[in-house]
Amino acid sequence: MLTYDQWEKAEKPSFPSDNETKGALDVLAWAYREYGDEIVYACSFGIEGIVLIDLISQIKPDAEIVFLDTGLHFPETYDTIAKVKEKYPSLRIVMKQPRLTLEEQKAQFGDELWKRDPNKCCELRKVIPLREVLTGVTAWISGLRREQSPTRRHVEYINKDDKFRSIKVCPLIHWTWKDVWNYVYKRHLPYNVLHDRGYPSIGCAPCTTPATDPNDLRSGRWAGQGKTECGLHLA
Q1: CA distance 138 to 36
Q2: Pairing outcome for strands 158-161 and 166-169
Q3: What integer is the mean pLDDT of 58-71?
Q4: Residue 207 marked as a ligand binder
Q5: Which pairs count as long-range contacts for 215-220, CB under 8 Å and 24+ apart, including other chains?
Q6: How far is CA 221 from CA 97, 126, 226, 228, in A?
Q7: Which of 45, 123, 150, 207 is the most exposed place for a label (fewest CB within 10 A)?
């Protein structure tokens, strides 16, 4: 088994990128064969997440899907999760919440921490919860695509994740925005209606606006705060 501690010595798998799913199904088949129940998919239920859920369901219908439920998501995001649960009843969807409720966070760090210190808020409500999820598992799946932003252009199918001391599997690295939507329409998949309202990337409601730059799908995330990532995908 390819693990974080054995990364330097282990032989890395290779996958075709020129087939119908640009390697995604091949990567997922390998990942579930390699790790079994020692891999989880941390899903935001954005449009890439919908694609991955559908692909994963073809490989492992009872896979574990973890949603980092910060308590600050749009109502439309929770509606999307309900639709996914209905369409894929065998999936094990876990709503992972932070240790601190919003009221407890307010009492300890002050009101609307996301405005004053968004990095701390992301750490408390996303990074620490994901670290707890990944304790005891060997690998996790992410919907990163190289096209999404400059910070993601060098992502590989299989990555050594130093932040969480894990293996991070990214099946969609070669997919374009058009590829994602073509797949969703072709398969008639449910998705977050905010995508139709100018939100290509959807996170917590206080920190997400419609995209401000049509050439940057993540330009509506933490707009004006000099922040581009929540911290899950940074070393």
Answers
A1: 10
A2: antiparallel
A3: 97
A4: yes
A5: 216/149, 217/147, 217/148, 217/149, 217/177, 218/148, 218/149
A6: 21, 15, 10, 7
A7: 150
> Cα-atom radius of gyration of the chain, to the nearest Å?
17
The residue assigned the tokens 């407890």 is: 104
- Contact in structure between 147 and 55 (CB atoms under 8 Å): no
User: Known catalytic residues?
Assistant: 230
- 150 SS3 class: helix
Distance CA 170, CA 230 (A): 17
Q: Which residues pair with 82 in a beta bridge?
A: none
Q: Kindly report the average pLDDT of the chain as a whole number.
A: 91
Structure tokens at 98: 């932070």
Among candidate residues 183, 215, 209, the one with its CA nearest the CA of residue 197: 209
Alpha helices in the chain (DSSP H): 24-35, 47-59, 75-87, 102-109, 113-116, 118-122, 128-134, 177-187
Q: Is 170 annotated as a binding residue?
A: no
Share above pLDDT 70 across residues of the chain, in percent, rounded to a whole number: 91
CA 104 to chain centre: 26
pLDDT value of position 136: 83
Q: How far apart are CA 164 and CA 233, in angstroms?
A: 10
The topology (CATH level 3) of 23-193 is Rossmann fold (3.40.50)
Residues 185, 191 contacting (CB under 8 angstroms): no
CA pair distance 229, 154, nearest whole angstrom:
15
Cross-strand partners of 68: 96
